[in-house]
Design brief:
single chain, 487 residues, alpha/beta, six-stranded parallel β-sheet, 17 strands, 47% helix, binds 5'-O-[(L-methionyl)-sulphamoyl]adenosine
Length: 487
């Protein structure tokens, strides 16, 4: 048994969660459930990033004090995760007073160790990103992600001497002491480090909603420093022993914030002489219906509404199945509806229902002890081993190829449907080929048992339902037809 500490980003709590936040959280939950089912002790941390200008602005718009505003959204985040069957270990909030205190102590330590310097800074700040942008990063004078004009700011700030850590971080990344994935993103990060690191501002003069900078009440700690430190303070607040040897086994996020996790965070840890995370993985960014999700376009997908319509498992499945984990892609309600109808209803649900119905109809007693497989010649033979799909599946999950893991399960689903279509148990029954009939249905039964097991991390509810039906032999529709059209 080993210990695994898996994290999602802590999401800005300036609005209700959307499908983008759900995507990373579902992926983390799949991994947490997978490792737990293998007997590992897993600590799965998620939470909310509650300070900074972006939140203060949203609170103001809502006519609330920042703390009152963030408190009002906490139940919304928690219920979204509950509806999606996310089994996090703890929910972290940066307004936790214990966190605030430890953050101040750590920032003071950075100051005392000589890694902080006060200097004047003129720059273009994007509140949406909560970071300064270089003029070269702008498109038509606007932030390419938020399509808003950054604000010119000239402040005296405290700076963290990131520029001193380039070589050390490169060495840690190149030696895989910090594994960065996927490779394409790792190369981008390495390239950017090689082009030289600049010091980063770690305080804000004009932002009141934040943790006070130690020794200077006129400044607050930059929201990203506050946020990144959650991965450390959580280990103290929740007593995660794994920290002693390795802080996080896996930080999951999208590519938008990889730089913070792969470079700034390790540099802070090196400065504080704290251990480094083992792996940082950035999945892709998706569009919805071909466009960036935005309130103005009106294509923001609300996970709660989707769960109400399709159920948690269908959403968990559809988002992870649609495009490779690690690459950019596109999702839409139409795509989710199609997955529901085809992959889940027509393929998986139908396979389960017809197999159990035929087992009942032809009076076959499933052989729960023995297993069967299909030989290369198409003969059904007794198996003394596990089915092959499981082999690839484990590798895929360990390599974070979540979409491929699902594909390997669906290969088994499809092959089993083909098996039934080709062997035609109804004909075998008519022709009174009893042994053959038993073996075909036993093979289908056996495969459904392994499909139910393999599906568990992705679709826990469906997996349980399947296991129950396979146990009781009482078929029930897994994914009823929905009279909702496509979207
Ligand atoms: N608060 C910071 C994170 C601090 S972590 C120490 C933040 N918050 S965020 O609310 O903007 O969340 C960004 C993350 O949400 C992405 O990295 C990703 O995990 C998820 N996603 C948001 N939109 C997404 C897509 N359209 N596609 C994929 N992931 C998405 O950044």
């Amino acid at each position: 048994m080993s210990k695994k500490f898996i994290t999602t980003p802590i999401y800005y709590i300036n609005d209700i969660p959307h499908i983008g936040h759900a995507y990373t959280t579902i992926a983390a939950d799949v991994l947490a459930r997978y490792y737990k089912s293998k007997g590992d002790e897993v600590f799965f941390l998620t939470g909310t990033d509650e300070h900074g200008a972006k939140i203060a602005e949203a609170a103001k718009k809502a006519g609330k004090e920042p703390k009152e505003f963030v408190d009002s959204l906490i139940p919304v985040f928690k219920s979204a995760w509950k509806n999606l069957n996310i089994e996090y270990s703890e929910f972290f909030r940066t307004t936790d007073l214990k966190h605030e205190k430890i953050v101040q102590e750590l920032v003071l330590e950075l100051v005392e160790k000589g890694f902080v310097e006060k200097k004047k800074y003129d720059g273009l700040y994007c509140i949406g990103c909560e970071k300064y942008l270089k003029p070269s990063e702008l498109v038509d004078g606007k932030c390419p992600d938020h399509k808003t004009q950054p604000v010119e700011q000239s402040e005296e700030n405290y700076f963290f001497k990131l520029s001193e850590f380039g070589d050390k971080i490169l060495e840690k990344i190149n030696s895989d002491e910090i594994e960065i994935g996927p490779d394409s993103r790792k190369n981008e990060v390495v390239g950017k480090i090689k082009s030289g690191l600049e010091d980063v501002s770690i305080s804000r003069a004009g932002v009141e909603w934040g943790i006070k900078f130690p020794g200077d009440d006129s400044q607050t700690i930059y929201v990203w420093v506050d946020a990144l430190l959650n991965y450390y303070t959580a280990t103290k607040i929740f007593g995660i022993e794994a920290w002693e040897s390795h802080p996080a086994d896996l930080h999951l996020m999208a590519k938008d914030i990889l730089w913070f996790h792969a470079v700034i965070w390790p540099a802070m840890l090196l400065a504080l002489e704290l251990p480094l995370p083992k792996k940082v993985f950035a999945h892709g960014f998706f569009t919805v219906g071909g466009q960036k999700m935005s309130k103005t376009i009106g294509n923001v997908l609300d996970p709660n509404k989707l769960v109400d319509k399709y159920g948690a498992d269908a959403i968990r499945y559809a988002v992870l199945r649609e495009f490779p984990f690690g690459e950019d892609g596109d999702i839409s309600e139409e795509k989710i509806a199609n997955r529901y109808k085809n992959d889940l209803g027509n393929e998986l649900g139908n396979l389960l229902q017809r197999t159990i119905s035929m087992i009942n109809k032809y009076g076959v007693t499933p052989d729960r002890k023995r297993s069967y497989f299909l030989s290369d010649e198409g003969e059904i033979e007794e198996a003394d081993d596990e089915p092959t799909a499981e082999l690839l599946y484990d590798d895929h999950i360990k390599n974070l190829q979540l979409e491929m893991a699902l594909q390997s399960i669906w290969k088994l689903v499809r092959e089993t449907n083909v098996l039934i279509d080709e062997k035609k148990p109804w004909n075998l029954a008519k022709e009174e080929k009893k042994l053959e009939l038993e073996r075909v249905l036993n093979l289908a039964f056996y495969r459904l048992c392994s499909i139910a097991n393999l599906l568990f991390p992705f679709m826990p509810e469906t997996s349980e339902k399947m296991k129950k039906q396979l146990e009781m032999l009482e078929p029930e529709v897994l994914f009823p037809r929905l009279d909702i059209g496509n979207g």
